[in-house]
Amino acid sequence: MPGPAAGAGYHPPPSDRRLLRQPPLTAPAGAHPLLDPILLIKAALMGVVEGLTEFLPISSTGHLILAGSLLGFTGETAKVFDVAIQTGAMFAVVWQYRVRLLATVRDIGFDPVAQRFARNVFVAFLPAAFFGLLFGKMVKEHLFKPVPVALAFIVGGILILIIENWHHKKYGERDLEGQRRARVETVDDMGTLDALKVGLLQCLALIPGTSRSGATIMGAMTLGFSRKCATEFSFYLGIPTLMAAGAYSVWKERGALHWHDAPMFAVGLVVSFFSALLCIRWLIRYVSTHDFKAFAWYRIVFGLVVLATAYSGLVNWTA
């Protein structure tokens, strides 16, 4: 006797329904989505990539796109995951600077320094929020691909070399008796117009491979910031930027997410937090005695390798 015809009135038994709705980014069929070790390992690796690259001028988004391509960690859920785990890196900044941030919250009602600091971070955040909403979808559709990312790596690396050479000539460190100092030495020396300019420069990071940190740090240095001040303000500016981007992405794509994705997101967030915390502490020490030229050469070489492997067919880079 023939079974029921597939149609509007047909409802598959529970044993068949799970086959009709496989979770995205799953490992081999039959693995439990909540305990899929392959998927969790990939999530952890992506968390490491995010944490180690978010605050360096080498583009975390670009590295996530390339790493996801190599790992087969792609698709709509993967794109949401890439943005969401930036929140883990953001919490690393909150933890590292918790004393300053708590003092700002405590004193903002009466302390002009706390008020100016909070205002500057907010003003710098606004341009990215505006232009991100305006152009974010178009950028994701056309530029979230390995080859455009590689080209952005190369161009960004060249710009870092140019800016570093210019900054050293104009604001290069001297001893205490020398008078060649940066115009803005600390975050507390910033004005509102300085913050707005840095915020506009952060918008360049909408292009994947550009680097949010690279755009803000190098941009601030062209405005006369010291290297240390530019780096620290980039950290602070990352808090509202990454938090807003992660929340907006998860909310907008909530229909593509399922509860069985929760372990994957949790692993990515936790790993990105700890790896970002290590990176932040290392970078603070690094910028006190080094410039960013090493990262520029890394970007250029890495971008050339991606382009060479893509056009030779050695690596099948996919979006």
What report would you give on this structure?
- By secondary structure, the protein is mainly alpha-helical.
- It has one domain (50-312).
- The chain has 13 helices and no strands.
- Helix 2 (37-53) runs parallel beside helix 12 (262-287) and helix 3 (60-71) runs antiparallel to helix 8 (146-171).
- The longest helix is centred in the middle third of the chain and has 32 residues, at 112-143.
- The radius of gyration is 22 Å and the shape is globular.
E-strand count? 0
Sequence of secondary-structure elements: HHHHHHHHHHHHH
- Could you estimate the helical fraction of the residues in percent? 55-70%
Rg from Cα: 22 Å
| Residue-averaged pLDDT | 84
Major sheet details: none
N-to-C span? 47 Å
Indicate the overall shape.
globular
Structural class: mainly alpha
Low-confidence parts lasting 5 or more residues at pLDDT below 50?
A: 1-24, 26-32
Strand content: under 5%
